[in-house]
Design goal:
Blueprint: H1 5-11, H2 14-24, H3 28-35, H4 40-51, H5 59-71
Protein name: Transcriptional regulator with XRE-family HTH domain
Amino acid sequence: MPISSTDAADDWDGDRIEKLRHRIGDTQTEFGLRIFACSPQDAQARVSRLESDEKPPSAAVVKHLERLDSDQ
């Protein structure tokens, strides 16, 4: 059975996102610029919200996270 976008987002909690970012060696800003098309300030704020579980990742962000994770 295929994984729904909700299930995929549930797999990516703030702790897992932060661990991936640290494994890559990025700051929040650098990491955000990899996955969001936005300004550096917005990139940092978005990653902060993801890592604090304030906002779950969208399906598009999950795709980016999966790609980054598979590259490591």
